[in-house]
Amino acid sequence: MAHKTATHEQAAPVQPSWQSSYNYSYNYWEEKLNTIWHERGLQIFMVIVMAHWAEHLAQAYQVYVLGWPIPESLGFLGLYFPSLIASEILHYGYAIVMLAALWIFRTGFTGKAYTWWMISFWIQFWHHIEHALLQGQAIVGENLFNSPVPISIVQLWVPRVELHLIYNTLVFIPMIVGMYLHMFPPPGEEQHIKCSCVVQPRSSAK
User: pLDDT of 60-97, one tens digit each?
Assistant: First the structure.
């Protein structure tokens, strides 16, 4: 008795139209931001990063030089928008923006530059977790470890002002190293870069 051979090929799952549209839009913007818009995108990103650094340094100046109480040391913007700066939502929002930017711009980097950039990303990932804990306590209205104010894990050992200066330094250093290696790539790596960020490939030692 003859048996018909059955095929087990499965049809590819059909994505909903909204999901296909989202994937197309995300891929489109990600490709642009890591090729023809990579240089300008990184420039804008660095303006945001440096503005954030300026706020932290202004806060440190208020605490250590001017001797202001920490609750009143809210940086430059805090002089005009104290309630906004004192809230957790702005700090958590910046942590999210920083994390998202490091992730989105990653594919524009190659070789050693990519390695350093991703080190910055993973440190920022933990920094974001710390801010998420702070934001969660602010939303719920209850603080961890019976603290009178929202508190993060490492803040159990390091005061908040100093801790976030340390976090931002740890994120900033590998990010800058990655950008330097991206702009001045080692010999042979420049050919894999698809954007206009390269200033000068470093010549190999003779």
Answer: 999 999 999 988 999 988 889 888 888 899 999 999 99
Nearest Cα to 201, choosing from 192, 187, 193, 191? Answer: 187
CA distances 203 to 92, 180, 195, Å, are 42, 15, 20
CA 89 to each of CA 12, 15, 100, 134, 139: distance values in angstroms, whole numbers, following the listed order:
42, 35, 16, 9, 9
Give φ, ψ of 198 to 5 degrees.
Answer: -65, 125
Q: What is the DSSP string of 162-205?
A: HHHHHHHHHHHHHHHHHHHHHHSPPTTTGGG--SS--S-PPPPP
d(C-alpha 96, C-alpha 2), whole Å:
63
| DSSP-assigned letter for residue 16 | P
Distance of CA 154 to the CA centre of its chain: 19
Determine the Cα–Cα distance for residues 162 and 52; give it in Å rounded to an integer: 15
Angle at 149 between CA 143 and CA 151, to 5 degrees: 65
pLDDT of 133-184, one tens digit each?
999 999 999 999 999 999 999 999 999 999 999 999 999 999 999 999 999 9
Using CA atoms, how far apart are residues 135 and 90, in angstroms rounded to an integer? 10
- Type of residue at 29: W
142 burial type by CB count under 10 A (0-12 exposed, 13-18 middle, 19+ buried): exposed
